[in-house]
């Protein structure tokens, strides 16, 4: 069986979407003749943890680890909440404190490509012995954090390995990158490192066609699109909520604020007393303050239920029990290629998806192509209102269902088979 070393920052007990992709690839790689070995940090600063994910790690997996120094650990002493938010990519664009502005400037200009850069040198030294011991020929790096790719870059130089670089998100074009208050020199350094990784890796994997097209302007190296997905074992059934629940699972970052949706829901609630009694807006995860402020401005406060962060298993149950599932992306050119990992679990939950995002959104194309829900841009009002009313009428009749098709190609096992062919 061929051995492959996977270098990743996120691993259980990390929670959130960053850990899911490679936790699931590792789960199925053995089915395709590949023995995974995993390298992780020994003392990471995870902004979200989910202890339940440890049960999903395959048996007899070889896991190597090394300590790392993370500046976020020091910053946490001064402001734990703000440090946690910034380290997870949740950047509040409004009413930033002096501390937050300073942290963003330091993060963007002193820690390039990111605050995990100090893990690179000790990892290269440590893994050089592991490569010899395990007689490895292939390594995989997955980012963000993109400093993980710098480990792969150095190991390839030293040992002539086959190196596959996996990008769960873009690098310099991701939405929050421009919020990091980068100097011109820092921007150039980020671009130079991105160029080096994309041109020195033997193969590149991305999660969207948009990112592939973007990277093709930087490198001639082969690029494959392997999206995120869902686990077949999670496609069970639970009792539907009694109320007309519209649920969002995961973080609603600053900028993911569909004001047209809040406006439409507010209008329907004012016009229909029965709808007011049934409507529930449920949020499992962090919601930024500007989103909360907008919902309260539209008098939606009575319908909001904040569930906080839940385990992955709890999130799956909430997806399956909700009447509608809300998917939102920032309305900008840079976010058209963002395909949230939860989209595929939404589809597996077999509940209709209400999606609001930029025009030409790739996630919207997937939803439309699988008939998994309805997609609207940020300017839609009347079509959005009519759709919600149609869904509500179906809910009152007990017949609100998803009519999605061809979602099986997004199962984690099917996607791992695609990956195995590249290896």
UniProtKB/TrEMBL annotation:
User: What keywords does the record list, in alphabetical order?
Assistant: Glycosyltransferase, Transferase
The UniProt record lists the keyword Phosphoprotein:
no
What are the residue boundaries of the Glycosyltransferase subfamily 4-like N-terminal domain, all occurrences included?
106-233
Q: Which GO terms describe its molecular function?
A: glycosyltransferase activity
UniProt cross-references to InterPro entries, sorted A to Z: Glyco_trans_4-like_N
Coiled coil stretches, renumbered: none
Q: What is its EC number?
A: 2.4.1.-
Keyword Cell inner membrane part of the UniProt annotation: no
Specify the superkingdom: Bacteria
Descriptive protein name: Glycosyltransferase, family GT4
Species of the source: Zobellia galactanivorans (strain DSM 12802 / CCUG 47099 / CIP 106680 / NCIMB 13871 / Dsij)
């Amino acid at each position: 069986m061929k051995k492959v070393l996977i270098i990743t920052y996120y691993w259980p007990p990390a929670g959130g979407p960053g850990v899911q992709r490679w936790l699931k690839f590792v789960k199925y790689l053995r089915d395709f003749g590949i023995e995974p070995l995993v390298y992780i940090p020994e003392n990471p600063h995870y902004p979200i943890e989910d202890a339940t994910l440890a049960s999903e790690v395959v048996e007899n997996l070889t896991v190597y680890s090394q300590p790392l120094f993370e500046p976020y650990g020091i910053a946490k002493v001064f402001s734990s909440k703000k440090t946690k938010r910034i380290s997870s990519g949740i950047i509040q664009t409004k009413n930033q404190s002096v501390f937050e502005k300073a942290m963003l400037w330091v993060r963007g200009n002193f820690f390039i490509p990111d605050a995990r850069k100090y893990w690179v040198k000790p990892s290269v030294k440590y893994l050089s012995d592991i490569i010899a011991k395990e007689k490895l020929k292939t390594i995989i790096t997955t980012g963000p954090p993109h400093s993980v790719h710098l480990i792969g870059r150095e190991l390839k130089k030293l040992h002539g390995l086959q190196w596959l670089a996996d990008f769960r998100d873009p690098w310099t074009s991701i939405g929050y990158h421009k919020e990091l208050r980068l100097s011109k020199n820092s921007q150039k350094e980020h671009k130079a490192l991105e160029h080096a990784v994309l041109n020195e890796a033997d193969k590149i994997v991305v999660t969207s066609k948009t990112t592939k097209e973007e990277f093709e302007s930087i490198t001639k190296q082969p690029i494959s699109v392997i999206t995120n997905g869902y686990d077949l074992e999670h496609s069970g059934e639970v009792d539907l909520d009694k109320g007309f629940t519209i649920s969002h699972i995961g973080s609603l970052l600053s900028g993911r604020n569909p004001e047209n949706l809040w406006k439409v829901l507010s209008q329907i609630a004012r016009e229909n007393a029965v709808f007011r009694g049934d409507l529930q807006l449920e949020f499992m995860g962090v919601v930024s303050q500007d989103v909360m402020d907008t919902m309260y401005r539209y008098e939606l406060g009575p319908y909001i239920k904040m569930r906080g962060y839940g385990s992955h298993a709890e999130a799956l149950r909430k997806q399956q029990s909700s009447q509608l599932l809300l998917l939102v992306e920032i309305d900008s050119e840079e976010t058209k290629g963002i395909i949230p990992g939860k989209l595929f679990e939404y589809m597996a939950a077999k509940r209709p998806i209400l999606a609001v995002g930029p025009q030409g959104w790739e996630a919207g194309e997937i939803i439309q192509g699988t008939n998994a829900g309805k997609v609207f841009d940020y300017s839609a009002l009347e079509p959005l209102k009519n759709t919600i009313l149609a869904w509500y009428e179906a809910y009152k009749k007990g017949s609100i269902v998803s009519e999605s098709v061809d979602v099986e190609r997004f199962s984690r096992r099917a996607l791992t088979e695609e990956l195995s062919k590249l290896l």
